[in-house]
């Protein structure tokens, strides 16, 4: 029993296929900075859990005072303690601001997104 010699095949080249690709609004937003940072206008309270001292109280203040036009506006929230301002200042690079998206904010459930 010997081995059969290798054979070469000439395969036809594939044709270009044009397709109507649809991307929903949330997927489109996830491909922006929103998918990499916490969006102060669209993220829900769970997104703040990894930031020490934010969850749930400071995160709630941030969400309740949205929308924001610039990230540093979060430093002007009413009723912030000096410790909260310091935490915000130290984490500004982790935030972004994009236009409010109804797909992410509709139902006003950013505080309680009903994920149990």
Automatic annotation (TrEMBL):
Q: How would you describe this protein's topology in the membrane?
A: Peripheral membrane protein
Q: Which domain of life does this protein belong to? A: Bacteria
Q: What is this protein called?
A: Photosystem II complex extrinsic protein PsbU
Q: Supply the gene name.
A: psbU
One term under GO cellular component: extrinsic component of membrane
Record keywords, A-Z = Electron transport, Membrane, Photosynthesis, Photosystem II, Thylakoid, Transport
The biological processes this protein is annotated with in GO are:
photosynthesis; photosystem II stabilization
Localization terms from the record? Membrane
Tell me what organism the protein belongs to: Woronichinia naegeliana WA131
Q: Family per UniProt? A: Belongs to the PsbU family.
């Amino acid at each position: 029993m010997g081995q059969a010699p290798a054979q070469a095949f000439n395969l036809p080249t594939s044709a270009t296929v044009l397709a109507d690709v649809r991307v929903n609004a949330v997927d489109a937003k996830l491909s922006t900075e929103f998918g990499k940072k916490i969006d102060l206008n669209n993220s829900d309270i769970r997104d703040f859990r990894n930031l020490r001292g934010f969850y749930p109280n400071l995160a709630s203040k941030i969400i309740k005072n949205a929308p924001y036009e610039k990230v540093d506006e979060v430093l002007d929230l009413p009723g912030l303690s000096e410790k909260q301002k310091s935490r915000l200042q130290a984490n500004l690079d982790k935030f972004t601001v994009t236009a409010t998206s109804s797909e992410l904010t509709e139902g006003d459930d950013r505080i309680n997104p009903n994920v149990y």
